[in-house]
């Protein structure tokens, strides 16, 4: 299947007018197998398919910002709720309230999104959406259908893998109100932020150094691993999500569009949500083991 990109959003190469020789710089942490420097003139080679202006250090910086934001903001939200909203409840009870997790998740997304925009536009002075390759495809319904088809295909694997019977994530759907709020995030901010980081920021750096195949694999692996805690550290569930990451990575590599991989991601999560709403009569009769959102 091929998908058309919008050429007007293709990032243009940045031409520098500075004739000064570049000084030594710190090695890129993703520059595996770098070639030795030689005084002989290098043969002319075609430019790489992926050539982001940021480096692996920048990707690690955003990853670190995400980790710190998760620790700090979740604690702030929980302690703030104990002091101002639930003064007669203990800390353990308050920390289990799904609405607080959703609030902290929204704040984390806001901080990380601001960090990515400030990195690209503040440090490198280029438009964020153009440089991240948010090329909106013209075949939206095909991409959404691909995500839905991936859900049903991977669903067949669940009978062959050890799947968790009860997970912390499923308890977020215990109340219809929380379930609907989480469903909205699952088809909007969740896939948007994950695709911007993994397929927008991280993939092109890895693909430039190692090629598209390794770029796809090495973004899909952490993409699956970060979901392990919410599924009770079950490797079967993580494997399903790793495969989702592989498909999204392939779409990103083939189309050159983060918007395309975002639509596939939305199709996968959105189909689950539609099935869950119908199957549980509006999240009123929850069944175990029906969610593998990413």
For the report, how would you describe the main beta sheet? none
Instruction: State the secondary-structure class.
Output: mainly alpha
* Total of DSSP H or I helical runs spanning 4+ residues: 10
Name the helix and strand elements from N-terminus to C-terminus, one letter apiece: HHHHHHHHHH
Q: How far apart are the first and last residues' alpha carbons, in Å?
A: 23 Å
Taking all residues together, what is the mean pLDDT? Answer: 84
Report the sheet-strand fraction: under 5%
Query: What is the general shape?
Result: globular
Please tell me how large the radius of gyration is: 21 Å
Q: Quick one: how many beta strands?
A: 0
Low-confidence stretches: 1-24, 32-38
Helix content: 55-70%
Structure report:
By secondary structure, the protein is mainly alpha-helical. It is 59% helix and 0% strand. It has helices at 56-84, 91-95, 98-123, 128-131, 140-157, 176-186, 189-210, 212-225, 235-255, 258-279. Helix 1 (56-84) packs antiparallel against helix 3 (98-123), helix 3 (98-123) packs across helix 7 and helix 9 packs across helix 10 (258-279).
What descriptive keywords fit this protein?
globular, mainly alpha, 294 residues, disordered N terminus
Concise description?
About 60% of the residues lie in helices and about 0% in strands. With about 290 residues, the chain is an all-alpha fold.
Topology diagram in text:
Layout: H1 56-84, H2 91-95, H3 98-123, H4 128-131, H5 140-157, H6 176-186, H7 189-210, H8 212-225, H9 235-255, H10 258-279
Helix pairs in contact: 1-3, 3-7, 5-10, 7-8, 7-10, 8-9, 9-10
